[in-house]
Amino acid sequence: MLVAVLYLAIGLTSAALAGAAASDQIQFFWRLSAFVISAVVFAAHIAFEHFRLRSPTRQTASHASAAVALGAFALALVANIHDLGSASGYRPRMLLALVAFPLVTAVPAFIVALVVAAVLGLKRRGV
Predict the structure, then answer these.
(1) Whole-number Cα distances in Å, 107 to 18, 22, 75, 127
(2) Mean pLDDT, residues 80-100
(3) What's the confidence (pLDDT) of residue 126?
(4) Are 49 and 90 in contact (CB under 8 A)?
(5) What values do phi and psi take at 77, rounded to 5?
(6) What confidence tier does 93 reach under pLDDT thresholds 50, 70, 90?
(7) Are 67 and 4 in contact (CB under 8 A)?
(8) 3-state DSSP of the chain
(9) 18-57 tens-digit pLDDT
């Protein structure tokens, strides 16, 4: 849960900073920084699960991808709430984001975490 909240905070903070940016280059920088910081959090989560908790490979991947999915769902929920107050009115297709954001992020996150945890597991066993 803590990691999912971190993903939400990263997304909201970078969006606010990008929205206040004076140029396209600075806006791009803040958006890119969100991806980089999220990748660091993702790697730290995998490392914590693997080294500190000694979780099995599949459990490590499940926990890491679940945090990614929860963070993506929270961002989609915030986007839906924001859209409610927009001048153009709420767009019902925004509801798709509540399903699409978690799926589009969790599936690749699971695969990456599974591979990374498996490689770390091989190194731990000395293979």
Answers:
(1) 27, 35, 17, 28
(2) 88
(3) 63
(4) no
(5) -65, -45
(6) confident
(7) yes
(8) CHHHHHHHHHHHHHHHHHHCCCCHHHHHHHHHHHHHHHHHHHHHHHHHHHHHCCCCHHHHHHHHHHHHHHHHHHHHHHHHHHHHCCCCCCCHHHHHHHHHHHHHHHHHHHHHHHHHHHHHHHHHHCC
(9) 999 999 999 999 999 999 999 999 999 999 999 999 999 9
- The residue behind tokens 């999220």 is 38
Residue 71, classified by CB atoms within 10 Å of its CB into exposed (0-12), middle (13-18) or buried (19+), is buried
How many CB atoms neighbour CB 1 within 10 A?
A: 9
Helix axes 24-47, 57-84, angle to 10 degrees: 150
Distance CA 9, CA 2 (A): 10
Check residues 11 and 86 and name the one with the higher pLDDT. 11
Q: Which amino acid is at 65?
A: S
When pLDDT is cut at 50, 70 and 90, the band that residue 86 belongs to is confident
Angstrom CA distances, 19 to 13, 29, 120, stand at: 10, 12, 39
